[in-house]
């Protein structure tokens, strides 16, 4: 009797720990309101549907991904990364190929699909302006680079990534379809002309703080952060003229422990319903082509995918190839 | 005076040697920990710096050959130097006051210093940002008083980094200084005064030389910590006065270029060790503590 009891308890314990191992996975993203929305609309509904617990981690760190893969001890199962990094890391052998028998890519925006990644959400760099703090609001990239007509500090994204170099070239009169390959000399020369007036933001929250406080009355921002800021009562004007799109991607690091769960999670997160809910909350555009019909019309009109007329797509493949070289140049230019 | 100090130093050395013999086994756990979690990874880093992307010293050549990286090195030393000097100048009187204050008040001031050390670093740095920015409290007050017309640029530059870092480093100067000043026998100062030294002479001839080991210990600690500081310069500094730690983080996290990151980290480590060696030579291990 006693033996039997011990045996039962033992099996139960083994069973418990076994199932706990199989039924959880780790999702890593950039933190802040974006990851909150990913948790609410992707992870929580995934857990209630599949009973697989999703542990949130962050922020995304490319050095960590490399370290984990090299050490053969990968603790992240799905990671939200920048699109150009996804392309580069896929080629460098740092990612698992995605299982498209689980993930349905037929209705995913083909611009953001590779063998190793699918679009997570996409956003635009737009011109944002705090109407209370600014004398006049710049409407075009040329305006934003014109310190005579629009004096004051302007905010730009600090890290080397698609967006700022493109903006400089567009401001300098390069035609949108002639942007690539990027003329870096010309871009940095244009950036030099406003360098003393640039304030850098290193994340979404910092960008909102700069604009709301009037520290920088205008600048280049992620569209979703402006939507969120406007919702708090700040008088924000957004100019979509030549908005520059870039996407985040979902990837699975090579050797991830819960690969199967990871694939299921990506399939769930990129489904039309989950994409539409995330987009409505964050102001970022969905990467599932069927998502927009599930969305409130008024909200839909504020998303980047409705601004296609004057839209410029950052070339992720170009960036993936030239990422390191541009990065080196970018940071040494900044440090000058 | 000089003879006395030298004799004291020799005594100290002998005592440390004796201690080292008898106490070595107690240090083994800590040593193992350091070898496992510090020395090994540092060696790994060194290895990467000469093997990635290929075998050779090209990473070091690029670091030393590039004007940008050299400027970042120079800026790092400039910031660390300025912060150290300011911390000592501001911290010394505070440490002195803490020693001579009535016990109750010195406890209150101590509590304030310790509490500020315990508060989250990020929170403190963001607080400075709010105070210093163009639309911040300081600029608004000054403009409201009519003292300035256009806001002062106090953040995203060297000024911001210096203010933020000095504030954070102050306790690291004050605490060792208090210990040293407290151990000075007040009778020596009284004797000096009896022999006709005025207040200034008492300070420059007695108090300052006797408390110099404390100054050196605090200054070294601050300087070394400042050399590798990351959060505060990243938030309060502009990109034009980037410091070494930020550059290493960029190499490791954004550019995923570990060869260059390793090289930069290793140069920083060597420079720090050299500085420590110089200080040891001048003051002796027992006195820096």
Write the SSE topology:
The complex is a heterodimer of chains A (336) and B (289).
Chain A (H helix, E strand, L loop, with lengths): L1 H21 L1 E5 L3 H19 L2 E5 L4 H10 L6 E5 H9 L26 E13 L10 H4 L9 E4 L6 H8 L12 H9 L5 E4 L2 H10 L4 E5 H9 L4 E16 L7 H11 L2 H11 L14 H4 L11 E2 L2 H19 L2
Helix pairs in contact in A: 2-11, 4-13, 6-7
Chain B lengths: L1 H50 L6 H8 L1 H34 L2 H16 L2 H12 L4 H8 L13 H25 L3 H9 L4 H29 L3 H6 L7 H11 L3 H26 L1 H4 L1
Helix pairs in contact in B: 1-12, 2-12, 3-4, 3-7, 3-9, 5-7, 7-9, 8-9, 9-12, 11-12
Keywords (chain A): Periplasm, Signal
Protein name (chain A): ABC transporter substrate-binding protein
Organism (chain A): Rhizobium lemnae
- Major protein interface: A-B, 23 and 23 residues
User: Distance between termini of chain A?
Assistant: 79 Å
Q: Strand count, sense and closure of the main sheet of chain B?
A: none
Specify the CATH homologous superfamily of the largest domain in chain A.
Periplasmic binding protein-like II
CATH class of chain B: Mainly Alpha
Shape of chain B: globular
CATH topology of chain B: MetI-like fold
Q: Supply the number of helical segments of chain A.
A: 13
Q: Unreliable stretches of chain B, pLDDT < 50, 5 or more residues?
A: 1-9
Q: Tell me the number of structural domains of chain B.
A: 1
Radius of gyration of chain A: 22 Å
Assign a percent range to the helix content of chain A. Answer: 40-55%
